[in-house]
Amino acid sequence: MKHLFLCLFILPGIISVSAQTIKLQPGTPFKTITDIKVNTNLNFAGQDIETVTNAVTTALDTIKAVNADGYTFSATMKHIKGEVKVMGQDQTFDSDDQNLRNNPQMADLFKALNTPNIIEIKNGKMIAQSQKLDAIIKMGGADDQAKYVLALQPTDIKEGYSWTDSTVSDSSSKIVSNATIKQVSDNAVVVEMHANITLKENINRNGMDIVQNLTGKAIATRTYNKANGLLINETSNVDLTGTMEMMGQSAPVTSKGTIVTTVE
What we know:
- The chain contains 3 helices and 12 strands.
- The protein has helices at 98-101, 107-110, 135-142; strands at 29-44, 47-67, 70-86, 89-94, 117-122, 125-129, 162-168, 174-184, 188-205, 208-225, 231-246, 249-263.
């Protein structure tokens, strides 16, 4: 049962703009470290179940190409570590553990390791990536890869400048984001983002089909390097409610989490 709850993860908001300036050059490397903490509560078959997930993912990234309306970069997952606590049991996972990497139940989580994920960003949105990633990695922001670069015209880098974006995925998930520049200093740009989220996702976990139907909000604060537009750090708080349909039953779900991303 405990493996079911690895699927309930969340999509932070997406920042997008119609005109952009990309200052990063091809060949620019950076590392992203994402610390994920999520509490999920659901009632399944009359039983209240709380799941606590803590995970840290580390990826090495490289800007591959830059053009007039976007850029392409590769993200290679190098390390995944964490734990899931549910129903009085703890499940730990660490990609450095060779025995665990050979466990078929963990295959989806570790299949992305050391394989470059080629990501294309256009007009501030991710329009394609070469890998289908596990839910834990997605929860850390793999469906929000556009956030790593603040692509704005220089004249728009000013306190109070705001924009709105609406993103719809093939799985009928929608994120409407409202972003505002809160502070500009000599070295940094601070952006506050508010997102309304509708998440509908079909997941297969250990041979079981699961449907998530969730709605909620995310509030994120992002700090960018003013000189090149690269993200320095982000803290995102997400609050979702809805249902998880599995085994012919619909289970009410609430999920709250904090995701902290650091770029080096």
